[in-house]
Amino acid sequence: MSCKETVNVDMSSAYRLLYPMHTVLVSCVGKAGKPNIITLAWVMPTSIAPPLVAISVAPKRHSHRLIEETKEFVVNIPTMEILKETFYCGRTSGRDHDKFKETALTPLPAKKVKPPIIKECVAHLECKLYSKQATGDHTIFVGEIIEAYADKQVLKDGEYNLEKARMIFHLCGSNFATIEPRVYTPKT
Asked: Contact 145/126 with Cβ under 8 angstroms?
């Protein structure tokens, strides 16, 4: 049996071995009522019943305070068509900028929470804060999904049509990719 060759990875970037990561736009709003957008790749479902999703946000980020204030957020699913805007929202602070205005993304009223949805995104998970946990230099906010919907054109039988959705995946730094529309099913 031959051994494969390996390379050590610095602990400060070990998390990148989990990449590419699905990239989302989280919209939130604080008590002052000004909506904000944060780009995140550290997002995952954590429970089916109740339906829960976790997002990981650094406490220094403006959105962290907003989510703590209202205990609500929306996970919006962007596509490659708004990659430039998605990248901008991850590199610019909402403390000093109006990301909706500066990107021309459209805020629309959500169905059940205060933060708006982002019209240009193909799907939306409206969440109320279920729990939060400090984890090193980030906080995991777990949201209970109280409303979920997607554009009819990108959803077929409950699954994304990858040709139409073209979701964004973060590779590292300023690099992104999308999934090719070919689906593989393992033979059993």
From this structure: yes
Please give the Cα distance from 78 to 122 (Å, whole number): 6
Q: Residue 156 is part of a domain; what is its CATH number? A: 2.30.110.10
* CA–CA dist 46, 90 (Å, integer): 24
pLDDT (tens digit, 0 to 9) for every residue of the chain, 188 residues total? 567 899 999 999 898 889 999 999 999 999 999 999 999 999 999 999 999 999 999 999 999 999 999 999 999 999 999 999 999 999 999 999 999 999 999 999 999 999 999 999 999 999 999 999 999 999 999 999 999 999 999 998 888 988 889 999 999 889 999 988 777 778 87
Going by the DSSP 8-state scheme, the letter that residue 5 receives in this structure is P
Write b or e for each residue in 90-112: b if 16 or more Cβ atoms lie within 10 A of its Cβ, otherwise e: bebebeeeebbeebebebeebee
- Residue range of the domain that includes 109: 21-173
- 4 lies in a domain? no
What's the angle, vertex CA 13, arms to CA 136 and CA 132, rounded to 5? 25
Q: Are 134 and 127 in contact (CB under 8 A)?
A: no
CB 140 within 8 A of CB 133: yes
In a domain, 130, yes or no: yes
Give the Cα separation of 95 and 24 in Å (integer).
20
